[in-house]
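Q: Could you write out the predicted structure for this multi-component system? I'm mainly interested in how the pieces pack against one another.
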Amino acid sequence: MPELPEVENVRRGLETLAVGKTVSAIDIRWSKIIVNPDEVFTAGLVGQQITAVDRRGKYLLIRFGEQLTVVSHLRMEGKYEVVAKEAPISKHTHVIFEFTDGQQMRYLDTRKFGRMQLIETGQENTVAGLKDLGPEPTPTTFLKADFYQRLQKHHKAIKPLLLDQKVVTGLGNIYVDETLWLSHIHPETPANVLTRIETDRLHDEIIAELELAINHGGTTVNTFLNAIGHAGAFQEMLHVYGKKGVPCERCGTPIEKIKVAQRGTHFCPKCQIKRDAK
Ligand code: ZN
């Protein structure tokens, strides 16, 4: 599943390739991808120009004109490409936005789990999944004191809390394992046991890790490619994810893999000591 860094790279790709183009037609080949009735989606967007591509968490917000936004979630396998209309169309292409300049923005999705919803710009909080998102992992929106306070209110394990996107948005399974290893925190540590020093460190590692991943194009898990077609190079920089049995880079102890909240979880049993509830 694409995580925040991959989605940010798709956003950057679309910003470069699609902003400024005007829609002349839309071909919906798999109707379930579109949350709205097909004719509402098409009638709303034909004639509109793409003015910006924003992102909130793992949702792309494609702005059309001043008033309309398509909220696009890639889910497991969704991706975009912007190509000339003559380019061969893969059988996994489900939505085609045709532009007046002869190019097309195509949405491809082998598993068909992705969704697009046309809304009025400003109504983002009406979309299920968007309204409960925590702050973006940047220094100006994600604040150390708030993070500590939020974690103090939870006695559940830190890993599932970071995965649920309400305390901070953008961390999927890979990046949670990585940031917890970088912060020397066992994934099953109850959140309210963490000290302010530990949550400050974790906060900084989350921001740094996602920034690094974005700048390296994200990880190339499964068949994900970003919009400009570059495979992510970040996978080579992972410390624990997918490294069961490999010696820890810090201490040499073999990395272990366990299940935490039904998710495969990698950690170093020596660097990340489990602590009990208060
Ligand atoms: Zn270690």
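A: Regarding packing and overall arrangement: The radius of gyration is 20 Å.
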